[in-house]
Amino acid sequence: MTYLEITAVGKSFTRGAATTEVLRDINLNIARGEYVSIIGHSGCGKSTLLNLIAGLTEVTTGGIILENAEVTRPGPERAVVFQNHSLLPWLTVYDNVNLAVAKVFGRSKSAAERHDWIMANLDLVQMAHAKDKRPTEISGGMKQRVGIARALAMEPKILLLDEPFGALDALTRAHLQDQMMEIHQRLGNTMIMITHDVDEAVLLSDRIVMMTNGPAATIGEVLEVPLDRPRKRLELASDRTYLKCREAVLKFLYERHRFVEAA
Ligand SMILES: Nc1ncnc2c1ncn2[C@@H]1O[C@H](COP(=O)(O)OP(=O)(O)OP(=O)(O)O)[C@@H](O)[C@H]1O
């Protein structure tokens, strides 16, 4: 059953007399609990699409519906995690998560319940031990985990991830990908993730949305990833289905829709 419905969405930006059509005729239905990745060359409009779903930008044409309600503005039911953590540097890890929790659950949960909820979410990303640290005192991977905890603490219907592991080294990245799979398995939430990493997309996703190059980019193909869960990266390294999916994405990106640098 469709949970998120993106229908005939287009997005243009106008500055002065110049209008750039970034996205054209995007159609995508996502089911509850699905993990969907969006992949495409730099500048094709992936972040623009995510921002439209987040309600941070308005569609130019078409519409986006989440559980029967049109998306017109940002809301806690669509939490975003950006590539570079967006924690407030003067607050502790705990207080950064608390800020979101107080906003969403300030009325519906007691102070004790809110405390337990903050700690439960920090536990989920294995950051409870660092609750009193400030962002400058923890590593990039840890900051990203706190950002994920903060987003999850809002109990969003959809988690929107804009290259969440893009700024991390390969080992930290692999560790966080594994944690993300575990969290998805445990909570069953709907995830939409932008990535440039083909292996990451295949490992984590139920479907991979492949975008054509801009301007006026659209969805070129959608690839199903029919791999059982839980998934283990080492076992998949030689799995035929995994390798076939990987090849399909690589062929889309580097054969059929090669990136051509604008002159
Ligand atoms: N607010 C804006 N005003 C004008 N143009 C914009 C705006 N936001 C994005 N664009 C343009 O839209 C296009 C797509 O940008 P976007 O950031 O969505 O691409 P992307 O696929 O996420 O890129 P990358 O992979 O490099 O992060 C770019 O040409 C960009 O310049």
What does this structure look like?
The protein has 263 residues and is of the alpha/beta class. The chain has helices spanning 46-54, 93-105, 111-124, 140-153, 170-187, 198-204, 233-236, 240-256, and strands at 2-15, 18-31, 35-39, 61-66, 69-70, 78-81, 158-162, 190-194, 207-211, 219-224. Strand 7, helix 5 and strand 8 (190-194) form a beta-alpha-beta unit. Helix 2 runs parallel beside helix 4 (140-153). The model has no long low-confidence stretch (mean pLDDT 94).
Structural key phrases:
six-stranded mixed sheet, 2 domains, Rossmann fold, 263 residues, four-stranded antiparallel sheet, binds adenosine-5'-triphosphate, 8 helices, alpha/beta
- What fraction of the residues are assigned to beta strands by DSSP? 25-35%
What is the H/E string? EEEHEEEHHHEHEHEEHH
Number of helices: 8
* Mean pLDDT metric: 94
Helical amount: 25-40%
Distance between the termini: 44 Å
What small molecules are bound in this structure? adenosine-5'-triphosphate
| Strands side by side in the biggest sheet | 6-7-8-3-9-10
Indicate the CATH topology of the largest domain.
Rossmann fold
Number of E-type strands: 10
